[in-house]
Design goal:
40% of the residues lie in helices and 22% in strands. It is built from four helices and five strands. Helix 3 crosses helix 4. A five-stranded antiparallel sheet has the order 1-2-3-4-5, covered by helices on one side. By secondary structure, it is of the alpha+beta class. It is elongated and about 55 Å long.
Length: 154
C-alpha cells in the first residue's frame, strides 16, 4: 500500500474485532424493556442527510485524507482518489476507489478497490497490489465508522 499508516497491526485488529463483538453482544443482551434505546441505536446506524451511511462516508474520507481526491459523490457513495506516491517511494503510486453500497453500517456495505503502478524506464506500468491491502483498508474504514457511531450514541 502507499502508506504504512493504513496497515493496522494484528493486535489492534484483534482488539477492534473484540470491541465490536462485545458491543453487538451488549446490544443483543439489552432486549427486555429498553425498546426505545434499541430503536434509537438502529436509527443511529442509518443515514440522515446524505445518500449513504454517514459513518462509513466520514470514516472513508478520514482514512483517505492523506491522498488527493479525484471524485466524491455522497449521493452515490463513491470516493475515488487520484494517484498518490509517498515522498520516500516516488517510483510507486496507488489509487483507491471506495463504494458505499447501503445506508446501514454493515461490513458488506463497503467495497474497496486499489490499483498500483510502478515507474519502469519513465513509464508507469500496472503492478500487483500487496495481498491483504484492500482487506486491511476495509477493516480500518469499518473500525473508524463503528467508533464514530459509538461516539455519536454516547
Amino acid at each position: 500500500m502507499a502508506r504504512n499508516c493504513t496497515r493496522l497491526p494484528a493486535s489492534r485488529r484483534l482488539a477492534a474485532a473484540f470491541v465490536a463483538g462485545m458491543a453487538s453482544f451488549g446490544l443483543a443482551a439489552c432486549g427486555g424493556g429498553n425498546d426505545e434505546r434499541l430503536r434509537a441505536d438502529i436509527a443511529a446506524s442509518q443515514v440522515t442527510s446524505i445518500g449513504v451511511n454517514a459513518y462509513l462516508w466520514r470514516a472513508t474520507l478520514d482514512t483517505l485524507s492523506f491522498m488527493p481526491l479525484a471524485q466524491t459523490d455522497s449521493s452515490g457513495g463513491v470516493i475515488v482518489t487520484d494517484w498518490y506516491a509517498r515522498p520516500e517511494e516516488p517510483n510507486e503510486r496507488v489509487k483507491v476507489s471506495v463504494a458505499i453500497l447501503d445506508q446501514d453500517l454493515r461490513g458488506d456495505a463497503l467495497r474497496v478497490a486499489a490499483s498500483r503502478q510502478v515507474r519502469d524506464s519513465g513509464t508507469w506500468v500496472e503492478a500487483p497490489v500487496a495481498a491483504g491491502t484492500v482487506q486491511r483498508l476495509e477493516d480500518i474504514i469499518l473500525t473508524k465508522a463503528r467508533d464514530l457511531r459509538r461516539s455519536a450514541i454516547n
